[in-house]
C-alpha cells in the first residue's frame, strides 16, 4: 500500500521522461487516432505497448469485434507513422463480476510488464476506452497497483447530471475495480470538463492538411465522420482522448488544471457515490483548450 506522500507525488504530472502503455478502443471514434499519434510523437513519453480495448456500439457487432477492429486500427496508425510497437489484443467481453479477470494478451502483458516498475519509477497506464484490460490485470496481480499510475478518460464531471458516459458504462465492474484498487488514479471527466476540447473542419485543415499522410488521414477521418451526421450544418468535434495523453505533458499546468479529491465510487446506477476516507485521486477540472491543441498540432506536423 502506498504511503500518503508517495501517492501525492505520483498524482502530479511527472517531471522527466516516462514509460507508458496506451489502452485504446481505437476504432470506436476519431479521437483515439489523435491520441495515439500524440503519444508517439511526444519525446517525453516512451510508449512501450498499445492494447486494443473492447467496445460495442454502431461501429461494432459486439465487444470482441470492437476490440479486433481497434487492434487493426492501431496497426494502421503505426503503419502511417512508420512506427513499430508492441500491440496486444485485449478483452473480448466485459467483466461478469468484480472478482474474475477476462483473460487476454493485453491484460497478461500489463500484469507482467508492470512488475518491472516501482513507486519511485512507475509505469503510466493511459486508458481511453472501457477499462476492462486494466481491471483484469489488477485482478491477476493486485500488487501492480503500487507500480502504476492510471490516467483514464471516462465518466462525467462530478457536477454533471449523471455518469452515463460511454467508457465507464460499458463495464462498471471494471471501473469499480480500478477505482478501488488503490492504484494512483487520474480522472479526466468527459461532459463538463473535456467537452471543451473541440475543433472544427476549418481549424483541422488549416493546421494539418497536406503536412503528412498521417495528418491527412486524421483530418479526413474526422471530417467524414462529422459529415455523416451534420453535413451542411455547423459542427465542432470533441477530440476527447488527446487530453489523457496531455496530462502527462502538463508541466507547469500549461494544458489543464487539476486537484486532489477522495477517489469516488462508480455505482451501477451510473452515478458516483462519495466516501471521504477513500485514497486521494487527481481530478482534472479545466482544459486550456488552445494551448493543448497548439501543442498537438505542432507535434503532429514536426517530422
Question: In short, what is this structure?
Answer:
The protein is α/β, with parallel strands linked by helices. It contains eleven helices and twelve strands.
Give the full name of the CATH homologous superfamily: Ribonucleoside hydrolase-like
Beta strands, count = 12
Fraction of residues in β-strands? 15-25%
Helical residues, percent: 25-40%
Please give the alpha-carbon distance between the first and last residues: 42 Å
Q: At the first level of CATH, what is the class?
A: Alpha Beta
What's the arrangement of strands in the largest beta sheet?
3-2-1-4-5-6-12-9
- Derived structural class: alpha/beta
Arithmetic mean pLDDT: 97
Write the layout of secondary structure elements.
Layout: H1 4-10, E1 18-24, H2 31-41, E2 45-52, H3 63-81, E3 86-88, H4 105-113, E4 123-127, H5 132-140, E5 148-153, H6 166-170, H7 172-180, E6 185-188, E7 198-199, H8 201-207, H9 213-230, E8 237-238, H10 242-248, E9 256-262, E10 265-266, E11 272-273, E12 280-287, H11 289-301
Parallel strand pairs: 1-2, 1-4, 2-3, 4-5, 5-6, 6-12
Antiparallel strand pairs: 7-8, 9-12, 10-11
What does this structure look like?
By secondary structure, the chain is α/β, with parallel strands linked by helices. It has a single domain, classed as Inosine-uridine Nucleoside N-ribohydrolase, Chain A, CATH 3.90.245. It has helices spanning 4-10, 31-41, 63-81, 105-113, 132-140, 166-170, 172-180, 201-207, 213-230, 242-248, 289-301; strands at residues 18-24, 45-52, 86-88, 123-127, 148-153, 185-188, 198-199, 237-238, 256-262, 265-266, 272-273, 280-287. Strands 3-2-1-4-5-6-12-9 form an eight-stranded mixed β-sheet, with helices on both faces. Helix 3 (63-81) links the parallel strand 2 (45-52) and strand 3. The longest helix is centred in the N-terminal third of the chain and has 19 residues, at 63-81. It starts with a helix and ends with a helix. The relative contact order is 0.16. The model has no long low-confidence stretch (mean pLDDT 97).
